[in-house]
Every structure is written in C-alpha cells, then in structure tokens.
Design goal:
Strand content: 5-15%
Number of helices: 14
Distance between the termini: 20 Å
Strand order of the largest sheet: 2-1-3-4
Shape: elongated
Amino acid sequence: MRTLIFLLKKEFKQIFRNKALLPIIFIAPIMQLIILPLAADFEIKNINISFVDHDRSSFSQQLYQKIVGSGYFKAISYGSSYQDAMQHIEKEESDIILEIPEGFERQLIRENKQDLFVAINAINGVKAGLGGSYLNQIIANYNQDIRAEWGLIKGNPQQAGLQVSSYFWFNPHMNYQVFMVPAILVLLVTMISTYMCALNIVKEKEIGTIEQINVTPIKKYQFILGKLIPFWLIGIFIFTIGLFGIGYLIYGIVPLGNLLTLYAYLSLYLIAMLGLGLLISTVSNTQQQAMSVAFFFIMIFMLMSGLFTSIDSMPNWAKAIAYCSPVTYFIDVIRMLVLKGSTFNDIKVHFAITAGFAVLLNVWALYKYKKTS
C-alpha cells in the first residue's frame, strides 16, 4: 500500500508539472461542453425559400405570411417566374421553391381543392427532408384554418374529428440541449480518460523511465494502479464539473435520478475506458502511435454511439458494432438517469455489460503489459 501511495504521489506531481497538459485536461473539456451543445442542434431553421406566385390573391398572401412567420423559413424571392426561382436553387441561394398556380383562390373556393408545387434542393438530404416536412405541415395547418373559417362563415361548422393532446415527457419544452449535453459530457470524459492514460504510459517508454521502473521491485498491479487511479479521479472530477458546473448553471439541467447510481456507473465506466487506454499503450511505442490508435476507436465510439443518429435506424451490422462500444451504454444510462430519473433496476443490464468491458479490457491490458526484472 505504501508503494502505491508513493507511485500516486509521483503521478500527480508529473501531471501537474506538465503546464501544457493541464489546459487539455481541465480547461478544454469545459470550453467544449459550453460550445458544442450550442452547435449540435438538429433543429433546422432559416430554410431559404423562393415563392412563385401566379395568383397574387389574398389567399396566396396569407399562405406566404404563414410560411415566413413560422420562423423556419426565410424568403429569398417572391415573383412569378419559375425560371428565376430555379436560378436561386442553382446558385445555392435557395433550398425550396413553392409555386402557387394561377386561379389558386378561385379554384379553392369553387372546387374546394387546389394543388401546389414544391421543388426541394435535396443535395443536403437531412435539410431537404426536414424542410419539406415543415412546409407540408404549415400548408396542412393553413388548409385546416381555411376550412374552419368557411364552416363558421356558412354557419355550419365542421364536425370535429379526433383531437390529440400530446405531452412530452422528460423534456417537456423539447430543448435539444437537455438531450445533447449529457451525451457530449460522456464523450469528453471518454476522450480525456482514454487519451491521457494511453499517452502517459507511452511517454514513459519514450523517455526511458519505464525501463527503470521495470527493474525495481514494484509489482505489475502496483504500477498499473498508479497509472490508472489519477486519471480515474480526474475523470470523475471533470464529469462533476461538467454536470453540475456547466449542465446545471448554464443549461439548467437537474439530474432526476439517484446520484449514487450515476457515480457508481461512472466509476465502472472509467475503469473500462482506462483499461482501453492501458491496452493501447501496451501496443504503442510512441505517443504518435498511441494517439492514432486512440483516435481510431474514439471516432467509432462517437459516430456509432447513438449520439448523432439513432441506433434503431442503423443496419444490423452497424448495430452490432454500436453495441460493442461502452460509450453506447453510458450515453443511454446518463440520459435515463439524468432525464428520466431511472433506478438501478432499469440500468442493471447496462451495468453488467460495462462490468464485462472493464474486466475484459483490463485483463487483456495486464496480459499484454510485460514487466521485466
């Protein structure tokens, strides 16, 4: 135990003496957690739209005002030439063309129906899909408003059909940052723990001090614990600052679940990710090699963890890869505990799987690490 304490003192001194490393560990994650949730927003606004109005009637003007006033669309042009509107599409100045035919109001009143033409620039598939959905919904609401108004004018209001009242549980205001901040915090903690642990051990190889340690009576497990515990504590510290310092003070996120359960899972998760960092360090001889290998895994964890795209929408082979990542389970767990207030019984399967990752990665790393005496 005394040997381990000396090793921990040595590691903490080595970490805090490195003036270039401290901002990366403590300042960079805080800045990233403040900035990234503001940018990682899938709600698309300011969609550029060109109007081609051949009717120039009060009804077409009402439709124009309703679309522009929704806050999702920005009118680029309003004219009567489809070719002019198409030029805006070709110059990437516009995303959607809405063409209102001649006789729009007259046909709508007489025949109780009319067609509109919508052309969407689909180079950006996500923006095109959402923009088209927004526009269709606005037009449908406009159509519903007109029918309701006609029913009142004629003194024969339409019979009400099914009425649906929706309540958004766990995120009632549909605030996307509440959904993204916990997941981004998981990625930041993952990057810090994995990168720093891998680079710290490889640095010992580069400067030759690991050879000196190898010939000492220090046991393998003591050396490994001396390397893992400092970054385990740093990971918990960064997570705490991110959740309560940034999440609560800036974004107003209040964890609904049990904090002991959350921190128990965090502790286990960090052991697993530090084991990955240790494993990377055993197969790398330089810090550049360690960074390249760690970057490879971090990118896969980031893109296939369910942070940006739903795992349910992935093909089966991609789902298999996603569920081989510890990050996938922690993102699911932190959202369940922070937003839903889930209990340990709800995450016990995630807990068991993460424990399996922790045992596998650390045992593998210990097996790969060779200590010569």
